[in-house]
Structures are given as C-alpha cells and as structure tokens.
Amino acid sequence: MSVNIKTYIGVYAEVMKNVFSEYSDVYAEELIPYVEGHKDVKFDAVYDGMCGNYLYFGKTLEKFGDYEAFESAEMDLVDMKSLITEVETELIKLRLMSEDVQIKFMVFNHYS
Fold first, then answer.
1. Which of 51, 56, 67, 98 fits a 20 to 30 Å CA distance from 92?
2. What is the pTM of this model?
C-alpha cells in the first residue's frame, strides 16, 4: 500500500468535534461537497480518513503533492482578514462555528 502526501496552505479551522455534535458523521449530505472537493464550492474540508485525528475546514490557498515543488506564496494581510471572515460565514451557515473554533493560517501535510 502506498501513501500519498499533500501539503496544504490556507485559512482553516479544526471542526471535528462540531461535526459530530451537529451531523451524524463527516460524510453527512451537507458536508459531502466540501469533503469530496466538488468544483462548485469555494471551501475545503480536509479529513484525516486514516486515523480520524482532524477535520480542517477552510479556504485552500495552495496545495501540492508528492514530487511537486513549492517555492513561495504571498498574501496581503487585508486579504487574510477577508478570508477569515469568509470561512467564518461558511462555518456559521453549516452550523459548525462555536466559541472554541479558531480560524488560523495553516500549513499542514495530509496523508492519504
């Protein structure tokens, strides 16, 4: 069995706990477009399907996989604030926003 790795750069919130308190599971009908990466949605839900350790919901700025090079990325802080607002608005719409949810700029590796 081979493992693929993707590196994500973006604005995300960890929402695993909220998903299970609001929906039956990660693959609830309302969340499928985000988890599966449908082209008509502007946000991503990156789920650790191997271990179930995280579900990051947010806006991906860059994503690259095995053997892909990444050189640099820039973003204006004003744009960052508007992205955070967009993510928060979508989380509220999906009933996943709560006091303990923090939206952050993140860089992480995702294994599948």
1. 51
2. 0.87
